[in-house]
């Protein structure tokens, strides 16, 4: 116990005794206990959550203790802490999911990169800190791709399979990998995903829902003028690096493992880089509009998304239904400048979004272009 003479070899006989000892420390003053990587403790001693629940109910909740449980395996944290059948369900006071870093944070990792290079790096590596520190900040992005991702000895070559096997214990990992690969390669509707992942006869909705719950897949629907109008959902991979790995590395992993194909794949990635960045640039644009709305005279935005219908698509749509204001935006990651003709087309697509409205909407337009 803290503040007492304890033999160097002292240990508690079991976890229940150790947890009950915390109650003594926390009766008179605030006492903070942090259990880092709680899923590892669960894997090593599965009854720990039941012990913690029992001791909490009988003793710890009546003290001034503050227990913090952290873990990088989201599925285990949800199963052991947040799920309705978990021993610790509803005993937490603040569940907080730490989100990945944003593109605005990458300057701290790559201080010499230009703004364009930071966006491209984010489009490949995303915002997971481990991915960002696994590459050389003094080397350019494509060199890092070759060294860290395409080489079998690279720190990120097998990162995605390793993480999926950790998160999906007891699940059909190869099947889920096929679903993720299908989405990464352009299948975004349930029908297309089912066909691309060879899931005929299987419940694709079940697999997509599981991936959504794990935070790997996000579902998007057009942001409509009418809240009652619903269209078919499209499914996208949430993490840029997961998308990049599934698109380029997964189909050729066996070849890359024996040291073949790195050069040709590297050249393919170099030529495909604008297409790699484009969907991420759209997401950055939506994030920026939501974050900067109501500033410097910009219109309010309460909802953010995109919109599509037969023959038309708007990359960025920001809506505030209370004030009936809408922002239509286009995100273009191209060398060619954005022209007046491009703006006219954006206005035309905005008019299609407004068709049928029986009330006036205050329409604004935003352009997120690499070159204006």
What does the secondary structure layout of this molecule look like, with pairings?
Layout: H1 15-25, E1 31-35, H2 38-44, H3 48-58, E2 65-69, H4 74-82, H5 115-125, H6 129-133, H7 141-150, H8 159-167, H9 173-184, H10 190-196, H11 204-213, E3 217-220, E4 234-237, H12 240-249, H13 253-257, H14 262-292, E5 303-309, E6 312-320, E7 325-332, H15 340-354, E8 362-369
Parallel strand pairs: 1-2, 7-8
Antiparallel strand pairs: 3-4, 5-6, 6-7
Helix pairs in contact: 1-3, 5-12, 5-14, 7-14, 9-10, 9-12
N→C terminal distance: 66 Å
State the helix count. 15
Give the SSE string. Answer: HEHHEHHHHHHHHEEHHHEEEHE
Oligomeric description of these chains: single chain
What's the helical proportion of residues?
A: 40-55%
Strand percentage = 5-15%
Helical/strand content category:
alpha/beta
Q: Which blocks of ≥5 consecutive residues have pLDDT under 50? A: none
Arithmetic mean pLDDT: 91
> What is the number of beta strands?
8
Radius of gyration: 25 Å
Structure in words:
This protein is α/β, with parallel strands linked by helices and 372 residues long. The protein is built from 15 helices and 8 strands. It has helices spanning 15-25, 38-44, 48-58, 74-82, 115-125, 129-133, 141-150, 159-167, 173-184, 190-196, 204-213, 240-249, 253-257, 262-292, 340-354, and strands at 31-35, 65-69, 217-220, 234-237, 303-309, 312-320, 325-332, 362-369. The strands form 3 sheets. The chain has a 4-stranded mixed beta sheet with strand order 5-6-7-8, with helices on both faces. A hairpin with a 2-residue loop joins strand 5 (303-309) and strand 6.
């Amino acid at each position: 116990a803290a503040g007492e003479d304890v033999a160097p070899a002292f240990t508690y006989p079991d976890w229940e005794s150790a947890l009950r000892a915390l109650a003594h420390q926390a009766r008179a003053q605030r006492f903070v206990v942090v259990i880092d990587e709680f899923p590892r403790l669960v894997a090593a001693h599965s009854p720990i959550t039941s012990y913690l629940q029992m001791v909490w109910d009988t003793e710890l909740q009546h003290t001034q203790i503050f227990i913090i449980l952290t873990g990088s395996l989201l599925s285990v944290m949800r199963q052991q802490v947040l799920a309705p059948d978990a021993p610790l369900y509803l005993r937490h006071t603040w569940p907080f999911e730490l989100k990945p870093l944003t593109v605005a944070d990458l300057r701290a990792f790559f201080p010499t990169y230009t703004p364009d290079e930071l966006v491209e790096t984010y489009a490949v590596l995303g915002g997971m800190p481990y991915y960002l520190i696994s590459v050389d900040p003094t080397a350019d992005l494509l060199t890092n791709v070759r060294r860290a991702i395409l080489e079998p000895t690279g720190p990120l070559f097998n990162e995605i399979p390793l993480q999926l096997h950790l998160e999906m214990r007891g699940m059909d990992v190869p099947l889920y990998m096929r679903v993720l690969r299908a989405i990464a390669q352009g299948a975004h509707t349930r029908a297309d995903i089912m066909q691309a992942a060879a899931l005929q006869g299987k419940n694709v909705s079940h697999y997509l829902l599981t991936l959504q719950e794990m935070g790997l897949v996000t579902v998007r629907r057009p942001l409509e003028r009418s809240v009652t109008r619903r269209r078919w959902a499209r499914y996208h991979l949430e993490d840029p690096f997961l998308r990049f790995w599934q698109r380029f590395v997964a189909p050729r992993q066996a070849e890359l493992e024996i040291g073949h194909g790195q050069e040709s794949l590297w050249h393919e990635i170099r030529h495909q880089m604008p297409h790699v960045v484009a969907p991420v640039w759209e997401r950055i644009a939506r994030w920026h509009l939501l974050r900067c709305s109501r500033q410097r005279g910009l219109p309010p935005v309460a909802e953010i998304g995109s919109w599509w219908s037969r023959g038309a698509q708007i990359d960025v749509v920001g809506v505030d239904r209370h004030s009936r204001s809408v922002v239509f935006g286009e995100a273009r990651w191209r060398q060619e400048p954005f022209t007046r003709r491009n703006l006219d087309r954006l206005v035309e697509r905005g008019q299609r979004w407004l068709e049928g409205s029986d009330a006036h909407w205050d329409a604004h337009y935003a352009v997120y272009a690499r070159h204006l």
